[in-house]
Amino acid sequence: MNIEQIYTGCLAQGAYYIVSGNEAIIIDPLRETAPYLNRLSKDGVTLKFILETHFHADFVSGHLDLSKATGAPIVYGPNAAPSFDFYSAKDGELLTFGSCAIKVLHTPGHTMESTCYLLIDKEGKETALFSGDTLFIGDVGRPDLAQKAASMTQEELAGTLFESLRNQLMPLADDITVYPAHGAGSACGKNMSKETFDSLGNQKRTNYALRADMTKEEFVKEVTDGLLPPPAYFGQNVAMNKLGYQPYEEVLSKGLTPLSSEMLRAMDDDVLFLDTRPAAEFAHGFVPGSIFIGLEGQFAPWVGALIPSVTQPIVLITSEGKEEETVQRLSRVGYDNVLGYLNGGIQAWDGELDTINRLEASQVEQGLGSDEVLIDVRKPGEYDAEHLADVPSIPLDYINERMAEFPKDKALVLHCAGGYRSMIAASILKARGYHHVKDVIGGFGALSKTALPKTAYVCPSTLK
């Protein structure tokens, strides 16, 4: 038996490829199926099952394309009702492959169909728990995402999750290895560890949500406290995972259509030009009106957070050779309507280029002008933990909703933690008609915490 965790850092997502004898199972696969098919062929094994822990909100699973290519059934636990053919597994049911078995553990709470899969080896020993979004390392799944579908409040879902954890997972042996669907950086929880697996025993000792003396009331309060609104694309990804989507190869083929400068200028006004090059290159020169979200950061989650609809028509401006990777990573979060890319990259653009000025931290520390305002675009938790005095917070996460809070009579100087998010914010503001926008190179990490600009304008904000 061999367990392979296939971890995708951009999504903080773990898929699993498990082989026993001449059969394999795959749990929570990513959208593109070629790597799985190649691995199955290389190993000379047959895919027995495609196991889904729940209807994912933060990425589009590859279950449909993978099932079509291999003939393997898609398996969900109780309460799932997708629009395609699938196998509905019962709580406690054993699914065999090779000389091993998977025990189905229905664990509603994160969603009502949420299911964990317990791996039993050929000696009959329970060895690994694939916990989906029910149990993370250091956290548990947020209980607010399925409220509408379940016709329950987040408190009711949290109470259901409490019972699932206590009745289904915590009685299991301490030496079982927990393999969750996500790690730190995912919006599916709030306190996840950077570790991507752990022993169940250690989680019982260290995970705040698994305290042995915890009451249900305490659990509900702690799990629901401090939850930020989920990204807008979450519901759209759930719908795609439940109802179906375009085959990945069709999405890739359309997205890799080469386009000229003339064709870009002829595009309808509703087409978004998305530039995925490194931040410094984007700042130096970009197609006017383009939005920057660089591949080198948490690309897919920020696309999902900032582009409201997965059906948005998109044209790409990428670094040379990064076109396919960009289409692939967009498809993972359901943004399938990529019309093509600027052939030849930014060097092929034959019109004027726009720019964004960048400041060194030392320039900011020497003092801003009376017409400049420094704004922090990090997450609320980062700002609350530590921030520059008299510098207001307008998180990038909420830039679309809080656009009016950016003063139009000032030059905007933006900083985040390291420079990635502030460049995204700067590009959005530029596209919305804020022409005097600057970015701080290195962000908060580079700024002194004592030498502050004395003329910083305090932007109107509900945050104190």
Proportion of strand residues: 15-25%
What is the radius of gyration?
24 Å
Class of secondary structure makeup: alpha/beta
Reported for the largest beta sheet, the result is:
6 strands, mixed
CATH superfamily of the largest domain, by name, is Ribonuclease Z/Hydroxyacylglutathione hydrolase-like
Count the E strands. Answer: 21
CATH architecture of the largest domain: 4-Layer Sandwich
Task: Walk me through this protein's architecture.
The chain is of the alpha/beta class and 464 residues long. The chain has 3 domains: 2-233, Metallo-beta-lactamase, Chain A (4-Layer Sandwich); 247-348, Rhodanese-like domain (Oxidized Rhodanese, domain 1), CATH 3.40.250.10; 357-446, Rhodanese-like domain (Oxidized Rhodanese, domain 1, 3-Layer(aba) Sandwich), CATH 3.40.250.10. The protein has helices at 34-43, 63-70, 147-150, 154-169, 200-206, 216-224, 233-243, 248-255, 261-265, 279-284, 299-306, 323-331, 361-365, 380-385, 420-431, 443-446; strands spanning 2-8, 13-20, 23-27, 46-51, 74-76, 87-88, 94-97, 100-106, 115-120, 126-132, 177-180, 198-199, 258-259, 272-275, 291-292, 314-317, 338-342, 357-359, 372-376, 411-415, 437-440. The strands form 4 sheets. Strands 1-2-3-4-5-6 form a 6-stranded mixed beta sheet. A 6-stranded mixed beta sheet has the order 7-8-9-10-11-12. A 5-stranded parallel beta sheet has the order 13-17-16-14-15. α8 packs across α12. The longest helix has 16 residues, at 154-169. It is globular, with a radius of gyration of 24 Å.
